[in-house]
Design brief:
The chain is α+β, with helices and mostly antiparallel strands. Helix content is 40%, strand content 18%. The protein has 2 domains: 3-118, Phosphorylase Kinase, domain 1 (2-Layer Sandwich), CATH 3.30.200; 121-255, Orthogonal Bundle (Transferase(Phosphotransferase), domain 1). Strand 8 and strand 9 form a beta hairpin. Helix 5 runs antiparallel to helix 9 (221-239). It is globular, with a radius of gyration of 19 Å. It starts with a helix and ends in an 18-residue tail after the last helix.
Length: 257
C-alpha cells in the first residue's frame, strides 16, 4: 500500500477527524503529492509512520531523524500575510538547542510544509521527572520569553531528551508573546496547565504556583524580565539541592553564544 493510502487509513482508523480534515482539505492532492515525494526521494515506506499529531504527521527517517508533514492551519501562521516554513525556521533558530531546530525544509507549499528534524525521546506521560528535567523545562520557558514568544503546549508529549537535555520539539502552536497577551485574557492558560503537570510529576516540593501567578501578570517587556529572573531563582534553588544535576546558568540574549 502506498504511503498516502496507508496514512489516510490510519487517520480514519485512529479517529483523527481533525487531522484528517487538514490533510484532505481544500487542496486534497497536495498531501498526496508530498507522500509520493517522500517515497521516491526519501525512501519512506508505510511502516515508517511514527505518529499522528493535531497538525502534523511524523515519519521515521533513518535511525536518528524524522520527517514531519504539517498543515499550515497552525497557530504560528495565524494573521501572517505570508505562510512560509522558512519564517518558522528562522524564528526557532535563536532558541536552539532548547527548541529543537528544523534541520532542513524539504517542501513548502500552499497548504502544507515538510521538514527534517532530529529524533528525540519524548518524556513518559506519567513517570516522575528528575531535577535536571525540571531545570531544562524552566530553561526552555526562559528562552521563549527572552525571544518574545510563547508555546503553551509544553506537556510531556511535546518535550523530549536530545543530546543529554530536554528540548521542546513541537512548537507549531507558537505565538508572539505580546500579541497573544493582547488577544486573550487567558493567554497563559495552556502554559499554566503544563507547569502544573510537571509539578505533579516532580517527586519533591518545588512550588511552581508562585511562578504561574507571576507569569499571569506579564504585560510588557519589563514584566517578562522579572519573570525570567524569578525562574532563575527557582533553577538556582534546584541546583543547590543534592539531587540538582548539571545546572546550566541563564544567559540573557545579548550574552548568548
Amino acid at each position: 500500500m502506498p504511503v498516502y493510502e496507508h496514512t489516510m487509513k490510519q487517520l480514519v482508523d485512529g479517529d483523527k477527524n481533525n487531522l484528517q480534515q487538514k490533510m484532505s482539505g481544500s487542496n486534497k492532492y497536495e498531501f498526496k503529492k508530498i507522500c509520493e515525494k517522500l517515497e521516491s526521494q526519501y525512501h519512506i515506506k508505510p511502516a515508517h509512520l511514527m505518529g499522528l499529531g493535531t497538525s502534523c504527521i511524523v515519519y521515521q527517517y533513518g535511525s536518528e531523524q524524522v520527517i514531519k508533514v504539517c498543515a499550515k492551519k497552525i497557530k504560528y501562521f495565524h494573521d501572517r500575510k505570508q505562510r512560509l516554513a522558512s519564517d518558522l525556521q528562522k524564528t526557532v533558530e535563536p532558541m536552539a538547542p532548547y527548541l529543537l531546530p528544523i534541520v532542513k525544509i524539504i517542501y513548502d507549499g500552499d497548504e502544507f510544509f515538510a521538514y527534517i528534524q532530529d529524533r528525540c525521546n519524548p518524556l513518559p506521560k506519567r513517570k516522575n521527572i528528575t531535577t535536571q528535567n525540571l531545570c531544562d523545562i524552566l530553561h526552555i520557558i526562559q528562552v521563549m520569553f527572552a525571544n518574545d514568544v510563547i508555546v503553551g503546549q509544553m506537556k510531556p508529549k511535546n518535550v523530549g531528551l536530545w543530546k543529554g537535555h530536554l528540548v521542546l520539539f513541537d512548537y507549531h502552536s507558537m505565538h508572539q508573546l505580546y500579541d497573544r497577551i493582547k488577544d486573550t485574557n487567558d493567554w497563559c492558560h495552556s502554559l499554566e496547565e503544563s507547569l502544573l503537570t510537571y509539578e505533579r510529576l516532580y517527586p519533591h516540593k518545588v512550588g511552581l504556583q508562585s511562578l504561574i501567578d507571576h507569569i499571569s501578570t506579564i504585560k510588557n517587556p519589563h514584566d517578562t524580565v522579572e519573570v525570567i529572573k524569578h525562574i532563575e531563582k527557582i533553577r538556582e534553588g534546584l541546583r543547590n539541592e543534592p539531587r540538582g544535576g548539571n545546572y546550566v546558568p541563564w544567559r540573557s540574549p545579548k550574552h548568548r553564544q
